Amino acid sequence: MALKEIAYDRTRAVEYAREWAYRRNPLFYDFSEIGGDCTNYASQCVYAGCKIMNFTPTYGWYYININDRAPAWTSVEYLYKFLTTNDNVGPYAIDVDVDMVEVGDLVQLRFLGKPVFGHTPVITKIDGEKVFDNIYVAAHSVDCDCRPLSTYNNVAQTRFLHILGARYKEI
User: Fold this and answer.
1) In whole angstroms, what is the distance from residue 157 CA to residue 112 CA?
2) DSSP H or E segment with residue 152
3) Dihedral through CA 157, CA 93, CA 165, CA 43, nearest 10?
4) What is the pLDDT of residues 70-113, one digit of tens each?
5) Among 48, 113, 135, 155, which one is least packed by beta carbons within 10 Å?
6) CB neighbours (10 Å) of residue 133?
């Protein structure tokens, strides 16, 4: 079976992000009380933009329920690894500089004193030049929509994930 490419629907991803920024979609568990819900929410937004999951056990990117999901669906580091190395079914991305981001892309933050990245907001608006003051995000854990990226405190490192598209298997 050959893999086919589809475009990432950035409009749908952003619409989803805005719709659920301050609420929880009942189709997905809310991880706020057990480590944070940001990457779960970011995965939901990416899924809204591509509608394709990768059901590969352990190394895929999928959510069926709280007990049946891939680590990449809810973990910052695993999502990064999945998106940047995925050459199979599902969405894929590249790590880019700030000047290459678009709405619907993800930003991951590593905070001071933390050894790994720990937060995954979704870019919902870019207002002018692509600098931190002009990039606005939506996120869970500390719920927000249209929050300037520059307002996050104690950020040690930032990385941007530009979603290139998604693949599916033609039957």
Assistant:
1) 8
2) none
3) -60
4) 999 999 999 999 999 999 999 999 999 999 999 999 999 999 99
5) 113
6) 12
